[in-house]
Known about the structure:
Blueprint: H1 6-33, H2 38-47, H3 60-72, H4 76-101, H5 104-115, H6 118-123, H7 130-149, H8 154-168, H9 176-187, H10 198-209, H11 212-220, H12 224-231, H13 241-259, H14 261-276, H15 283-290, H16 293-302, H17 318-329, H18 345-368, H19 386-398, E1 406-410, H20 414-423, E2 430-432, H21 449-452, E3 457-463, H22 470-473, E4 476-490, E5 493-505
Parallel strand pairs: 1-2, 1-3
Antiparallel strand pairs: 3-5, 4-5
Helix pairs in contact: 1-4, 1-5, 2-3, 2-20, 3-4, 4-5, 4-7, 5-17, 7-8, 8-10, 13-14, 14-15, 14-16, 14-17, 15-17, 19-20
Amino acid sequence: MIPFSxxxxxxxxxSVLGLLVxxxxxxxxxxxxxxxxSDESYYWEWGRRPDWGYFSKPPMIGWLMGAVGLITNHAExxxxxxxxxxxxxxxxLLYALAKRMFDQQTAVLTVFLASFTPANIALNxxxxxxxxxxxxxxxxxLAFWLAIEKPEKASHWILLTVALGMGNLSKQMMLVFPxxxxxxxxxxxxxxxxxxxxxxxxxxxxxLLFVLPVLWWNEQHDWITxxxxxxxxxxxxxxxxxxxxxxxxxxxLLQMALLTPLIWIFLMIIxxxxxxxxxxxxxxSQFLVMFSAPVLVVFSLLALRQNINPNWxxxxxxxxxxxxxxxxxxxxxxxxxxxxxxxxxxxTTIMVFVLTAVVYAAPLMMGVFGLSGHSRLDPxxxxxxxxxxxxxxxxxxxxxxxxEKTFFLxxxxxxxxxxxxxxxxxxxPVYRWQENDLISSQYELWPQANEERMGGDALxxxxxxxxxxxxxxxxxxxFEKTGEIDIPLGNGKSRSYKxxxxxxxxxxxxxxxxxxxxxxxxxxxx
Length: 526
């Protein structure tokens, strides 16, 4: 096959550069129009209390949030910029990997296909655990391939060790990478000589040492992260056949929405076909297939029994996108099935352009068509109204009898506590009171107000639909309602709170006891 023209290559290259510029221009608009996602403000709270571990995740995202907060004085744009930096560096590493394995044309097309997707747009707008994970995973792919090419260079193994270790501190999913390394060198005759290299085993072993502080922290907290992670694999025993079919079909449909239909279908064909024709593949193809298809097969099978969070497979599409770029460009011809890959280059290009434009325009269109705040038709309804809530809470705090010794006590879902904490200008200490003895967030693991704020005053924020427990009344010397917060979001939706002032904390209300201790997750991703 003949590679695409240099003119088209320049077009793709300029498109990627144009997208990066658009993201820089779009960032301040997005910051002014939309608030942080609840996970972002929650991880920002982690950053205010650096530790070796947290309720649901390793510590990297908390450390990064702490650093960003320190550098930018807890500015929202700093958090958004951090996600953009991580996403851009990840694309640069993916470009380097594709160029090293194939050529510059393939690298340009690979980055184009990877960046013009709704998933990558979100990755560069929301600073969650996936941003550092994707960065470390892409770096590990590049470092491991360099080590395979030139195993005698110690620097390659050192880079791999650092990428793996930092990834282990970012998200549990990174622990799959060493497993795939071992399967590759065992299953591939071409890669098997790597097993005799000390660097292979040392890099994996040392990278696992990064996890030791996290394990120590978990041992001090009843292995809470492990219990939370296990909760993600619970299934409903009474689920009907129809429910299971819906869950199973939702997995590919959501992946198509995040990657665009054509790209996802092509990635599945190349990945699963690569496993089927494994012995006929050259080493570079085996490498890329191994870090993509096997785990995607596992997720596809897992979807038969439970929900799969849409972001779980994210890193396993990275290596597959390199093979797809090579196939569409003509550098590499898959042996299955007989698809005229280059004929699909322009349709794929048009589709990703259209979907990218739709995704970037959608936030504007919500207001134009009067859909802002709509519970079903506004995908950004959950990131509206928090800034106004925080500003109003800040006014309540400034009017309190003793603002300097007043803390916040927030009821309901953890997002209420973290969002109010971030958007209140004074960033006061915030506590979340559980009605029962369930551990459902990091707030229950931190010291409670009775350990840190005895004798202090509290502003109590009660979300709509919640009632104040009698035990909270009796926990303060005086207790009175001071006002309400009601922020309209549009389409009849609003963020509403009743605000109470408790003077002189004299005790901490005990939660309602349960027969057994349970671990719940409040809409957190794994």
